[in-house]
Amino acid sequence: xxxxxxxxxxxxxxxxxxxxxxxxxxxxxxxxxxxxxxxxxxxxxxxxxxxxxxxxxxxxxxxxxxxxxxxxxxxxxxxxxxxxxxxxxxxxxxxxxxxxxxxxxxxxxxxxxxxxxxxxxxxxxxxxxxxxxxxxxxxxxxxxxxxxxxxxxxxxxxxxxxxxxxxxxxxxxxxxxxxxxxxxxxxxxxxxxxxxxxxxxxxxxxxxxxxxxxxxxxxxxxxxxxxxxxxxxxxxxxxxxxxxxxxxxxxxxxxxxxxxxxxxxxxxxxxxxxxxxxxxxxxxxxxxxxxxxxxxxxxxxxxxxxxxxxxxxxxxxxxxxxxxxxxxxxxxxxxxxxxxxxxxxxxxxx
Length: 350
What we know:
- The chain has 2 domains: 2-167 and 290-312, Rossmann fold; 170-287 and 321-349, Response regulator (Rossmann fold, 3-Layer(aba) Sandwich), CATH 3.40.50.2300.
- The protein has 12 helices and 18 strands.
- The chain has helices at 69-81, 103-114, 126-132, 173-183, 199-214, 227-235, 250-254, 256-265, 275-279, 290-305, 327-333, 339-344, and strands at residues 2-4, 12-16, 27-33, 38-39, 42-49, 52-59, 62-63, 95-96, 118-122, 138-143, 162-166, 189-195, 218-224, 243-246, 269-272, 284-287, 322-326, 347-349.
- The strands form 4 sheets. Strands 1, 2, 3, 8, 9, 10 and 11 form a 7-stranded mixed sheet that branches. Strands 13-12-14-15-16-17-18 form a 7-stranded mixed sheet, with helices on both faces.
- The longest helix has 16 residues, at 199-214.
């Protein structure tokens, strides 16, 4: 989580001064993500601070081996562009859940105690944040179904203290299945994996099952409760399902490498929601650009720290979806991707 003055679910908090505010006035932000293993890197760059130009070493907190490294870097870069330089105009505090949802409540309570000015997190942490505070402004950088999950009263006017960016995943389940049908000859059965403890993931799983019926596909539903259940559940699909649809949440994303490896060993193609997971060995992804979502989340934080209220900032919905295909994975699975499909891809990993 990340928050002004305290962190949110995935774990970042920051406290800073910026030009245009009263001298000495400080703000804090907390940031929360579903993984750990923090490596700290610094980028030396020239920053314009109220007409005074100087070089600073900006801490961008990347995560070695994590599928979220690009998102975190993008968020921090945009903050710097907006004048929020870690260690100068804001202090960032990070907390990492490592895909363990039970940690969210403790992190949220800690951020409340720290009296952060903003909390930034992902959708799976919002229920814990809502239980902890109804006043601290909170931004979800990516949420599957913020309206259906009850995070906001409406997309246009969220109300309350929470706003952010929607993944709109429930609206594109049918398109993802259509892509799998085009890629895998004689596909008759697919599996869908979701975190049993995350309601939005279960709703997406239901949407997948309904959409699969339109294509005449049978569906195996895998509802897991922890990382230890993921590998055995996928292995059990060998020789039965040829494709696996992943419903993204903190637990699933924290185990992306393990999921892709298990699926490959079982000869199963994987469908993901974002390109970062195809880069980690998944066959295909179709969804919003999550790196860009996290970058735009920084604009939400900037507006809030400058006085805007989350209740009045509309939830942003994606308008562009990227198709990414991993040809290396396709070769391992013995799949030949149709040229027509390759021609429509936004990116092909070779």
